[in-house]
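Can anyone check this?
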Amino acid sequence: MQCAQIRLALSALADREEPGTDRADVDAHLAGCAECRTWHAAAAEATDAARAAQRPAAHVPDLTEQVLAAIAADTAARRRPRFALTRGATRAHPPSRAGDAAGWTGFLHAGVLRWAVGISAVAQLLLALPALFAEPGTADVALHTGREMASFDVAVAIGFLFVAGRPAWARALVPVAVALAGCLLLTSSIDVVDGAAQLSHELNHLLAGVQAALVWLLARTDRTPTAPEPLPRQV
């Protein structure tokens, strides 16, 4: 019997069909033909693999409810106060009176600074407005220079007034205030030492230094709160 007929019979048997050949003849041929035995083994492996691929997948449990419950528990945990580990147990930190006192102190401190910045701005305006609207009577160059300086002082004073009303803007004005105070104090010191100016005439520049310090302190007290750190996820 030829190998082709035997292999057709083996394929039919693998597919659970009638082989069309006596089973005894098939077995006898396999016993004496090494090539057909090898082919039969490979065909059997391929058939088993194909049947395994066609088997229905294992049932996957529905974890939707468990996932939603875990998300809800995590959200609730984030809304609860922070916990600190103490000797293996968790205890919530109740709000302390010291923290409340510190908050009120900071609020009052910021309020005082805002008033101080506003008062210094008004004082600067009162000093600058007479020079801005000075009557002609001096040299045109000196009058023009004085009005230019007064215009600058008025602009800076208005900036300080806005900062007093909106402390969040204090940080933006700190570099301007510090640079202005530094330049005025440096040039005034040089002019006084050289005799080009009298000390009494330069004392009004101390106001710029005071304003710079006040704005810097106000910028430090008015800070945007950072987002709380996320709590560790529950396992």
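Reply from J.R.: I decoded it. Strands lie at 83-86, 89-92.
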